[in-house]
Amino acid sequence: MARKPRIVIALGGNALGKTLPEQMIAAKTTSKAIADLVEEGYQVVISHGNGPQVGMINNAMAALSRENPNQPNTPLSVCVAMSQAYIGYDLQNALREELRNRKIMDPKVVTMVTQIEVDADDPAFDHPTKPIGHFMTEEQARHAEQAYGYVMMEDAGRGWRRAVASPMPKRIVEMNAIRALVEAEQIVIACGGGGIPVTMKGNHLTGASAVIDKDHCSALLAKELEAEFLIILTAVDQVAINYGRPDVRWLSRLTCQQAREYIAQGHFAPGSMLPKVEAAVSFAESGSGRTALITRLERAREGILGLTGTRICR
Ligand code: ADP
Ligand code: MG
Predict the structure, then answer these.
(1) Which of 234, 245, 250, 252 to mutate for ligand 1's pocket (most ligand atoms within 8 Å of CB)?
(2) Active site annotation includes 276
């Protein structure tokens, strides 16, 4: 029997909320969008971001080590691992429930703790660009710089946040396990928070102080799984050029060539839309019959039916 067409779904910040209670509610809406694609006959694999969550965990662990000198600070890589587990926990339960509500009575949903090998010499380690955690005033940001040695950045006019390194993902360490589960028709949640960044020396993997971009990591996962679709679900219906200007133009289709031209012209904001378009291009041009789609979380079904979203093809 021919296999079902495969979709890797990359979930953005709006799919998870910013606090624990918000996440439980958001996971229900997100599960509806995912279940829609399952019902359309696709085999889905899910990845997700973790910006607010990994920042929250990191702050909590830092507070613990300030209170108790016997508790050394928790490495960022471990914070990413913690975020994978508790986000996966909420998502896999919410999705399980949603599928059962739709009379899919034995849903097979599983979360894989996933490590991603990065290059120890990646120049990204010297230039933190990835905003994590909560928003602060400039005054609070200056305090965080002095008190905790954090690098702080202004995030797209929305306030100040901690910035961490975001190296490019090179290899998914648990890829064989993920593939085996996908081939056994499990719905796998993998590469959460961009994956746990590790560097390899001989047989030893060391956690790196970084947070990988989930859009780039999802493109790598989709290529490895030879997926037909990479769907990046975010907070806007479509990708635009001249975004935020009166002459804004929303795009339904883009070739990789056109997308690269728009990237060069600076149409996509770094840290938000740019990594999505880059990931979409990287996946779409990696093989024939591969399509990337960027659309709003709640409109995933309409997106796959070609009724909304921005499609990026070779
Ligand atoms: P996510 O959490 O899903 O990764 P981000 O906030 O990182 O979401 O990126 C999506 C946001 O990118 C949109 O909500 C929009 O505000 C912004 N954005 C920046 N440039 C563009 C553009 N050219 N077209 C559409 N959205 C854009
Ligand atoms: Mg993002």
Answers:
(1) 234
(2) yes
Of the residues 13, 193, 303, 309, which is catalytic? 13
For residues 228 and 289, the answer to whether their CB atoms sit within 8 Å is yes
Locate all alpha helices (DSSP H) within 161-230, ordered by sequence. Answer: 175-183, 214-224
DSSP, collapsed to helix, strand or coil, labels residue 119 as coil
Beta carbons of 189 and 40 less than 8 angstroms apart? no
pLDDT in tens, 265-314: 999 988 789 999 999 999 999 999 999 999 999 999 999 999 999 999 99
Q: If you ran DSSP here, which 8-state letter would residue 200 be given?
A: E
Return left, alpha or beta for 181; rule: phi > 0 is left, psi -120 to 50 is alpha, else beta.
alpha
Gap between the Cα atoms of 22 and 13, Å rounded: 11
| CB-count exposure of residue 68 (10 Å: 0-12, 13-18, 19+) | exposed
Residue with tokens 């806007």: 236
- C-alpha 48 to ligand 1 mean position (Å): 15
Q: Which two tokens stand for residue 248?
A: 């804004």
**13 CB under 6 A from ligand 1?**
yes
Instruction: For Cα atoms 166, 167, 170, give the angle at the middle one, nearest 5 degrees.
Output: 140
Task: Identify the CATH class of 6-127+165-306.
Answer: alpha beta
Of the candidates 302, 225, 301, 234, the residue with the CA atom closest to the CA atom of residue 38:
301
Separation of alpha carbons 233 and 230, rounded Å: 10
Chain center to CA of 309: 18
**Cα of 224 from ligand 1 centre, angstroms:** 26
**What is the whole-number distance in angstroms between the Cα of residue 273 and the centre of ligand 1?**
4
> Is the distance from the beta carbon of residue 18 to the nearest atom of ligand 1 less than 6 Å?
no
Q: What is the pLDDT of residues 34-66, one digit of tens each?
A: 999 999 999 999 999 999 999 999 999 999 999
267 lines ligand 1 (CB under 6 A): yes
Q: How many CA atoms lie within 13 A of 41 on its CB side?
A: 5
